[in-house]
Specification:
heterodimer, A: Uridine Diphospho-n-acetylenolpyruvylglucosamine Reductase, domain 2, Uridine Diphospho-n-acetylenolpyruvylglucosamine Reductase, domain 3, 2 domains, 5-stranded antiparallel β-sheet, 35% helix, B: alpha+beta, Aldehyde Oxidoreductase, domain 3, Aldehyde Oxidoreductase, domain 4, 7-stranded mixed β-sheet, 5-stranded mixed β-sheet, 28 strands, 28% helix, globular, binds flavin-adenine dinucleotide
């Protein structure tokens, strides 16, 4: 780790102005990615602005339309929230399947979504549930948010304040864990939204979370496991590594999608 | 009757400190005026060093010293020694290229240390280390043992032709080959035994200091055998006499073999501590552990088993290419030879065995003993090929094994070992019963209805532990003896401190050994303390590895205890005015046989230290004895493991549904500790079979699996709930009748799992580890074959 200045922000606006004040300042949420990359000397911020004390970034609100998670919602908080479990059970379950207990106690929804790791779980929920990302400057639809590997629509200095997830009719998330890291090697979130439309969001398999239009169409016609069982996703463009070649990932997308539909119907 | 201590599942006394954060590990120690070291390491697998420039680094804040390979050469410091000299089939000694403590001229694997930077703080040392400028001329690298032997392969050491360290063999080649020309059946397998990266929880750590006051070095190091460390470092590398060097291995958070060895960092810090006249600390980061701890396994093997029509084994021949890595680590050369080929008889009366082993240098981290060391590799060969033969010949795999079991002891194998005792039917019978093998077809059918593939596999392993009779080891090339030492210090009040040359790094010796002492002396266990791991306290020691601690170290303690009792008997005879021959010692009482006249152990101890009424003409005062024990043979733990797996063909996920382990460890002192050792060994073995694989990129020589993101350590939820039991044929040649239990699980379990998996998949062979992707790809290939 290189030396840096530690600052605490009292609100989202305070964080934004502190961020603007230094060229090499970075935000600190749960630190589960940030601290590790600083320890490895891969990141060397001049200033680290801790969001833990920004009250307006905390909190979970649930109403008839949906769930809004403050950016600083810890994975463990979301997992054990009775309100979230009731309103959008898939969200609680997804959060409860991230990393291990220590990671869930520290890691935050906002940090995860801002970081946009290709193997992270939350992006599948944001995209699959058609959520809206609220920031210090605007609101961004899920379809417009995830641009590429570790790349989002966030502008420099823009901070995620919360994310609103509309209530779905039914949804389920199936995660095939990378055997070593336990991140998503392939994670598929299938949701039938309130208006009856279907979303299938895939994380872990490609450079960035993506939707599978063919599956969505088939499920809109018939929301059954059989509807997706024979839909194959092309292997081109998918990730290949020692844990899974692209063809295996492509195959797993179909298997996980089918199982997600089964689970959503259960 | 005194409280019984033998065979009792007493809770480990060391766990209170381990589980409550009160352990005292090397990194916990901070000495006054402490400095910190950071190593500059090679980012390349193979390169010539054009220059190492340290001027900019030296100007950094807080720097206390910087040393490079040139400084080491100028100081005439020797390379790291290899403790075992193997002579090849051609009669020539193995190639022992220099293993400098800081690279000289060339780097030979990623992580090879090039320079060390010592500074006031760790952060300053890191900052300065980044400014050491090394100019490399990158060379092509070779990481695989088979590739490295090919003509034209890059040479790891310029003067080692074909990268061949040695080619060694055992057994009668001509007679073995002759059998294969006419055998009714021959089974052939060729496979890779995957490379493993040990990863103990506590990384290696060193804290070295030098005292000008008495010209004395103190080295704290996370190590499994401090006396051997002192001997190797002092006598072979730095030229320091033993009495000027103290080595302490305090609490050690796991070793599994990887902390047996003398590492470059230990020597560099010890030497540099005098140069900078400050204590220096270095604790490996996890990334450094991956790159520089000695790895395990990495054999490429082709094996053939010849059988007669009835399935009787006629001959086994094995050819192995063993990857040594870039340099010979401390015991590297012994692992694929003495600890491997000698185990190829397994539990079977195979009359002829021939094994040829070629040890090969590659641009990878050194490979050395890792839990099991050679014996897992041997067991894998034997138990995979026996299972494959059974399937090919359509003989029940358990029946085929029984047909070939050794049943009369002692048994001389054709590969040097003399098995003293065993009962292989007993462990197989019990395992079959516990695993409900009879119910397997029904379970398989039920799984099939759910679309799952179920398989069952056996492994009947044997291992040679209690390493080793020094004379045998010496004749096989060991450059050290392999005895153990113990000392029993009885205090005036009858309390006892026992010093052992064995070292505990998770095994629970402080409990097991105390049970042995309390039982032998008939005193409460609370009156006994076990001390280990400090050359200034313990008289000598060869350390802990090869499941030798209780069989060898424990026996040394028993011998010292018997000397204490013998002296006590003399003192008691004097006090009780009886003949020494009439004094019996039971339950902590010295008694005149057939009377109620007795003296308690503590009274005798007090008399020894307050010798007012004492046979001064015959005895010295005091009660303190030591003993050295050199075993007359190895011990031979053996057993049967049965594994049942279920495969999800849609995903390739393998679940171990049942795992039964029935072991024969001879007599058992603490069954709970033994069970824990078995569990740990099984997890390591199943980890090798299902999860772990050290992979180097064949082009760049970079370690692909250099972090836990890619190197898959087994986790609790990968494992089944183990069903374990024991059967016992006590060892015939040590007084405790014990054999050792530390490695069995890691030795016996990989073939059990792979036998179950190949049964489930209906394939002849499968390369470890059985990761989901590889299982899925195998099923896809099988499907394509069927379709074609
Ligand atoms: C061992 C381990 C296992 C893990 N397993 C999983 C897993 O299985 N699945 C999974 O999805 N994740 C996993 N993670 C990641 C973890 O869950 C966190 O979500 C992730 O590390 C980022 O969240 P954080 O709160 O820790 O962010 P930080 O590390 O603090 O920050 C990450 C990045 O986001 C920026 N940032 C933080 N908050 C905001 C904000 N509000 N607005 C804009 N930018 C912001 C930071 O500046 C930084 O660049 C794992 C992590 C570890 C260490």
């Amino acid at each position: 780790m290189y030396a840096f200045r530690y600052q605490t922000a009292s609100s989202a606006a305070d964080a934004a102005s502190r961020l603007a004040a230094h060229e090499d300042a970075k935000l600190l949420a749960g630190g589960q990615t940030m601290i590790a990359s600083m320890k490895l000397r891969l990141a060397s911020p001049s200033d680290l602005i801790d969001l833990a004390g920004a009250a307006d970034l905390h909190g979970i609100t649930v109403d008839a339309k949906g769930v809004t998670l403050g950016a600083m919602s810890r994975h463990a908080e979301v997992a054990r929230s009775a309100d979230v479990q009731k309103a959008i059970p898939v969200l609680a379950k997804l959060a409860g399947g991230i990393g291990d207990r220590m990671v869930r106690n520290m890691g935050t929804m906002g940090g995860s979504v801002a970081n946009n790791d290709p193997a992270a779980d939350y992006p599948a929920a944001v995209l699959g549930l058609n959520a809206t990302v609220n920031t210090t400057t605007c609101s961004i639809a899920a379809d417009d948010f995830f641009l590429g590997m570790y790349e989002t629509a966030l502008q420099p200095g823009e901070i995620i304040t919360s994310i609103s997830f509309p209530i779905a009719k039914r949804a389920a998330y199936m995660k095939f864990k990378n055997p070593a890291s336990r991140y998503a090697m392939v994670g598929v979130l299938v949701a039938q939204l309130a208006d009856g439309s279907v979303r299938v969001a895939v994380t872990g398999a490609g450079p960035v979370v993506f939707r599978v239009a063919a599956m969505e169409k088939a499920l809109e016609a018939s929301f059954t496991p059989a509807a997706v069982a024979s839909i194959k996703v092309p292997a081109e463009g998918l990730n290949s590594d020692i844990h899974a070649q692209a063809d295996y990932r492509a195959h797993l997308i179909t298997v996980m999608a089918k199982r997600a539909v089964e689970a959503a119907l259960a | 009757m005194a409280t019984p201590y033998i065979g009792v599942p007493i809770q480990r006394r060391e766990d209170l400190r381990f589980l409550t954060g009160a352990g005292n590990y090397t990194d916990d120690l901070t000495l006054p005026h402490q400095t910190y070291a950071v190593f500059v390491r090679s980012p390349h697998a193979h390169a010539r060093i054009r220059s190492v420039r340290t001027e900019a680094a030296a100007r950094c804040a807080g720097v206390v010293g910087i040393f490079t390979g040139e400084d080491v050469a100028a100081a005439k410091i020797n390379g790291l020694p290899c403790g075992w000299l193997i002579h090849g089939t051609d009669g020539q000694p193995m190639k022992e290229p220099p293993h400098p403590i800081l690279a000289q001229g060339k780097v030979r694997h990623v992580g090879d240390p090039v320079a060390v930077v010592i500074a006031e703080t760790l952060a300053q040392a890191r900052d300065a280390a980044e400014r050491v400028a090394v100019d490399y001329d990158v060379l092509p690298a070779v990481v695989d043992s088979v590739q490295a032997l090919k003509t034209g392969a890059p040479l790891v050491h310029d003067d080692v032709a074909a990268n061949r360290c040695y080619t060694w063999s055992i057994g009668d080649k001509a007679a073995t080959d002759a059998v294969f020309t006419h055998a009714a059946h021959v089974t052939t397998l060729e496979f890779q035994n995957n490379r493993l990266i040990p990863n103990p929880i506590e990384p290696r750590a060193v804290n070295a200091s030098y005292s000008r006051a008495d010209d004395h070095y103190t080295l704290y190091v996370s190590n499994q055998n401090p006396h051997v460390e002192r001997l190797l470092m002092g006598a072979f590398v730095l030229g320091l006499p033993e009495h000027k060097v103290r080595v302490v291995a305090p609490d050690v958070g796991g070793g599994f073999g990887s902390k047996i060895y003398l590492y470059a960092e230990d020597v560099v810090l010890t030497w540099a501590s005098k140069k900078v006249n400050r204590p220096i600390k270095w604790t490996a980061e996890r990334s450094e552990s991956f790159l520089t701890d000695a790895h395990g396994r990495d054999h490429h093997t082709r094996a053939q088993l010849a059988l007669d029509r009835d399935g009787r084994f006629l001959a086994l021949r094995v050819d192995t290419k063993a990857n040594m890595g870039a340099y010979l680590s401390t015991f590297a050369s012994a692992v694929p030879t003495i600890l491997y080929a000698t185990l190829l008889a397994g539990q079977y009366a195979t009359p002829l065995i021939h094994c040829e082993v070629t040890a090969v240098f590659t641009n990878t981290a050194p490979v050395d003993a890792y839990r099991g060391a050679g014996r897992p590799e041997a067991t894998y060969v034997v138990e995979r090929i026996v299972e494959a033969a059974a399937r090919e010949m359509k003989i029940d795999p358990a029946a085929l094994r029984r047909r070939n079991f050794i049943r009369s002891f002692p048994y001389q194998t054709p590969v040097a070992l003399l098995y003293d005792t065993g009962d292989y039917d007993a462990t197989l019978d019990r395992a079959i019963e516990m695993a409900d093998v009879a119910g397997f077809p029904a379970r398989r059918a039920e799984a099939a209805r759910r679309g799952k593939l179920r398989g069952l596999g056996y492994s009947c392993y044997i291992e040679a532990c209690g390493i080793a009779p020094s004379s045998v080891a010496g004749s096989l090339g060991a450059r050290a003896g392999l005895f153990e030492a113990g000392e029993v210090r009885v205090h005036p009040t009858g309390k006892v401190t026992v010093f052992t040359g064995s070292h505990a790094h998770g095994q629970g010796h402080e409990t097991t050994f105390a049970q042995v002492v309390a039982d032998r002396l008939g005193i409460p266990m609370d009156d006994v303390e076990i001390v280990h791991g400090d050359t200034s306290k313990v008289l000598f020691g060869m350390g802990t590895y090869g499941s030798r601690s209780l069989a060898v170290g424990g026996t040394a303690i028993v011998k010292a205890l018997d000397k204490v009792i013998a002296k006590g008997r003399k003192i008691a005879a004097h006090l009780l005015e009886a003949a020494e021959a009439d004094i019996e010692f039971t339950d902590g009482q010295f008694r005149v046989a057939g009377t109620d006249r007795s003296k308690a152990f503590a009274e005798i101890a007090l008399t020894a230290y307050v010798p007012h009424n004492f046979p001064h003409d015959k005895l010295e005062p005091g009660l303190n004895e030591n003993a050295f024990y050199d075993p007359s043979n190895f011990t031979f733990p053996a057993g049967t493991y049965i594994c049942e797996v279920e495969v999800d063909p849609d995903t390739g996920i393998v679940r171990v549904e049942r795992f039964v382990a029935v072991d024969d460890f001879g007599n058992i002192i603490n069954p709970m500790i033994v069970e824990g050792q078995v569990h740990g060994g099984l997890v390591q073995g199943l980890g090798q079979a299902m999860n772990e694989c050290g992979i180097y990129d064949s082009g760049s020589g970079q370690l692909t699996t250099g972090t836990f993101l890619d190197y898959c350590m087994p986790r609790a939820d990968d494992m089944p709930s183990f069903q374990v039991d024991t059967r016992s044929t006590p060892c015939t040649h040590n007084p405790l009748g014990v054999k050792g239990c530390g490695e069995a699980g890691a030795i016996g379990s990989p073939p059990a799992l792979m036998n179950a998996l190949t049964d489930a998949l209906g394939v002849a062979d499968f390369a470890m580890p059985a990761t989901p992707q590889r299982v899925w790809a195998t099923l896809q290939a099988a499907q394509r074959k069927q379709a074609a």
